[in-house]
Specification:
Blueprint (H helix, E strand, L loop, with lengths): L5 E6 L3 H12 L5 E6 L2 H10 L7 E4 L8 H10 L8 E5 L4 H10 L3 E4 L4 H16 L2 H4 L4 E4 L1
Parallel strand pairs: 1-2, 1-3, 3-4, 4-5, 5-6
């Protein structure tokens, strides 16, 4: 693994969104390793199995089968081995009440999924840059990116 490589974990059940995300990440200047899981149970199993080598950032969809993103976020933030993982919510939902709850639980960034490829690259780059610079760990920031 390269020193500057960022490990990204994407939890999203929508195949098209995963491909769109993967294509966008490939075009970014940052060297990345992308791993994708497709439901909340897969996500939590992956995190527990890799708790000694967590990704640099998790992009988490809210509407997933078996365990939704809100349940996963709550579980991540309650677990001592996982609670420092930077979590970027990545969803089509845009409810201010839900966003407020997500930030209270421990999400760092909320991204409303854009339909435009260039905007998608921009918001992913921003989330990756913040993770790479460890901004999440220095400050308890709450950030909404609405491309």
């Amino acid at each position: 693994m390269e020193m500057n490589q960022l490990n990204i974990l994407l939890a999203d059940d929508d195949t098209d969104d995963c491909l769109f995300f993967k294509d966008a990440v490939k075009e970014l200047s940052q060297t990345t390793q992308l791993t994708a899981v497709h439901d909340g149970e897969q996500l939590m199993n992956y995190l527990f199995e890799n708790s000694e080598n967590l990704p640099n950032v998790l992009f988490l969809d809210l509407n997933m089968p078996r365990k939704n993103g809100l349940e996963c976020l709550s579980e991540i933030k309650r677990n001592k081995k996982l609670n420092n993982l930077p979590v970027v919510i990545f969803s089509t939902s845009y409810s201010p009440d839900t966003i407020s709850i997500l930030f209270k639980i421990g999400a760092h960034v909320y991204i409303h999924k854009p339909n435009d490829f260039d905007k998608l690259k921009q918001v992913i780059q921003h989330g990756i840059t913040m993770a790479g610079e460890r901004i999440f760990r220095k400050n308890q920031i709450k950030y909404i990116l609405n491309a």
